[in-house]
Design brief:
There is one protein chain. It is built from eleven helices and 13 strands. With about 350 residues, the chain is of the alpha/beta class. A hairpin with a 2-residue loop joins strand 1 (about 10) and strand 2 (about 15). The radius of gyration is 19 Å and the shape is globular.
């Protein structure tokens, strides 16, 4: 079996290990523009030795932002600061990816460390859209139902975001269809109460995700892999579930998706989530084995031994470490030492590396 420091090939790229960084919003952009904070934040983690780094949820429209601090990719002027991040990551041997996102009914709220409720117009808020006029929860505005005539525009915005991401130099794109944001809202019967071609049956509820994937894949170079993030379950009876996730992933594989980033929850605030070390890896394993597609495992993965076990036992093809990488950007270098594996170090840091380490 593969181990944590074995390379992973996805189409025309090769990841140097099975260690990646999931998208984590920094809420530090200005009018969608990446700032010095983003460059330093992502640059330090690329230096730290991760093989894959997925840049945070980047909105394909201004209204698709979670907050005023979200990064955007709806305008060509967003390309240059993003390209700086992608270019530096690749200089460090880290594959830079970007997450294309639309928040739907969970848009127009405060920054991540502020109160999570819909902003007033006076505070810079805007009207939100969703598959149905059902609010996310207390303090959130009732969204407008996304008109059927407006859906092609949403699909085109995702495709245009992919084009800009490619121009910025990202080697992978991830479509955000998890955590209760717009595409996930269409998947779940709890948020999607439509009676048209985009609601009701499994085929109809998955239609928008499939159409976005097809549009992005058509825009994304054939040699580069495409990923999608899915919430495997809403953790609520009657919601989106793991069986549907597996079925959808079988379809998405045929549409050109190369890896599924398997998370869970986010659709309703009342879900009871049995969070614990590796609590979502079982879903990654199911998708990997039953849908026959590569997966990423995420969720309270903290130790090198735990991460290595997930790979060696075939539960996933790559592990994504979020909070642990926030705490320690150099976790991959420490993990290599703990597991007795080789890892390259920046030439500038070689004096602190284990004897015999190679520079990059």
């Amino acid at each position: 079996m593969a181990h944590l420091f074995e390379p992973l090939k996805l189409r025309g790229i090769v990841l140097s290990s099975r260690i990646g960084i999931p998208p984590m919003c920094q809420y530090s952009a200005h009018d969608g523009m990446a700032t010095d904070w983003h460059f330093v934040h992502y640059g330090s983690r690329a230096v730290g030795g991760a093989a894959l780094m997925i840049v945070e949820a980047t909105a394909v429209t201004p209204e698709g932002r979670i907050s005023l601090g979200d990064m955007g990719i709806w305008d060509d002027r967003h390309i240059e600061p993003l390209s700086r991040i992608a270019r530096f990551a690749q200089q460090q041997g880290c594959v830079a990816a970007i997450q294309l996102a639309h928040a739907g009914r969970k848009a127009s709220v405060g920054l991540g460390w502020q109160a999570q409720s819909t902003l007033s117009e006076a505070d810079g808020g805007w009207k939100t859209v969703a598959p149905s006029p059902v609010a996310f929860g207390p303090g959130y505005a009732v969204p407008g139902e996304l008109d059927t005539a407006a859906i092609p525009g949403v699909i085109a915005n995702f495709a245009a975001g992919a084009r800009r991401a490619c121009e910025a130099g990202f080697q992978t794109a991830e479509i955000h269809a998890a955590h209760g944001y717009l595409l996930h809202q269409f998947l779940s019967p709890l948020s999607n109460q439509r009676k048209d071609a985009y609601g009701g049956s499994f085929e109809n509820r998955t239609r928008l995700v499939r159409e976005v994937v097809e549009a992005v894949r058509a825009e994304w170079p054939e040699r580069l892999p495409l990923m999608i993030r899915l919430s495997a379950t809403d953790w609520v009876d009657g919601g989106w579930n793991a069986d549907e996730t597996v079925e959808l992933c079988r379809i998405l594989k045929g549409l050109g998706v190369d890896l599924v980033d398997v998370s869970s929850a986010g659709l309703v605030p009342t879900a009871k989530i049995p969070a614990g070390p590796g609590f979502q890896t079982e879903f990654a394993a199911r998708v990997r084995h039953e849908a026959g597609i590569a997966t990423a495992a995420v969720g309270l993965i903290t130790s090198p031994a735990q991460a290595d076990h997930i790979i060696r036992s075939g539960q996933a093809d790559i592990v994504l470490l979020g909070r642990e990488i926030l705490r320690n950007p150099y976790w991959p270098l420490a993990a290599a030492q703990a597991l007795g594996q080789e890892a390259t170090w920046p030439h500038q840091y070689l004096r602190a590396a284990p004897p015999g380490s190679k520079g990059r």
